[in-house]
Amino acid sequence: MELQRPFLRWLLMGVAAMTVFSVMFFAWTTLQNRESTLAIRPSAQNVSVPDGFSVWHHLDANGIHFKSITPQDDTLLIKFESSEQSAAAKIVLDRTLPHGYIIAAQDDDNNQTSAWLTRLRNSTHRFG
User: Fold this and answer.
1) CA distance linking residue 89 with residue 92, whole number of Å
2) pLDDT of 31 higher than 70
3) How far apart are CA 25 and CA 53, in angstroms?
4) Mean pLDDT of 43-47
5) Is 40 helix (H, G, I), strand (E, B) or coil?
6) In this structure, what is the dihedral angle of CA atoms 85, 88, 90, 93, given to the nearest 10 degrees?
7) Cβ(35)–Cβ(112) below 8 Å
8) Is the C-alpha dihedral spanning 105, 111, 117, 121 positive or negative?
9) Nearest alpha-carbon partner for 57 in 49, 66, 48
């Protein structure tokens, strides 16, 4: 019985340590994988959305990697793997694109919320 107690204590401490390290690892990976999206919109009605190829060219020439460039309505959405890449891209695009564009970070959670609200507002509700 005396030999089992140190072993059980060692086993319990090992399981507790592995649990703590696992939780810390998953928290770290969750915080590291933050996608970021930049939205480029024309500031006036007579200005068109910039061409995705020219945006790609400016970002590539400055060594900024991105996941995708997608036109949506009157907006060009650029997805990045991190907020640091997004911030660097904003600096480059502010400098290289002509005036007349609004370049801003887009929150993906708010975008989904606003999409649902738009759907609810645009649908007709019939009661009775």
Assistant:
1) 5
2) no
3) 38
4) 83
5) strand
6) -110
7) no
8) positive
9) 66
The C-alpha atoms of residue 107 and residue 99 are separated, in whole angstroms, by 23
Rg, Å, the chain Cα set: 24
Q: Are 71 and 51 in contact (CB under 8 A)?
A: no
Region of 12 please: left (phi>0), alpha (psi -120 to 50) or beta. alpha
Q: Residue 37, Cα to own-chain centre: how many angstroms?
A: 5
Residue 2: the pLDDT is 58
pLDDT band at 48; cut points 50, 70, 90: confident
Give the angle subtended at the CA of 88 by the CAs of 24 and 96, to the nearest 5°: 165
Give me the pLDDT at residue 1, please.
53
Helix, strand, or coil here: 29?
helix
Backbone phi and psi for residue 61, each to the nearest 5 degrees, phi listed first: -65, -25
CA torsion through residues 102, 85, 73, 52, sign: positive
Angle at 108 between CA 117 and CA 61, to 5 degrees: 140
Instruction: Give 84-126 pLDDT, tens digit per residue.
Output: 888 899 999 999 888 888 888 886 554 455 455 555 555 555 5
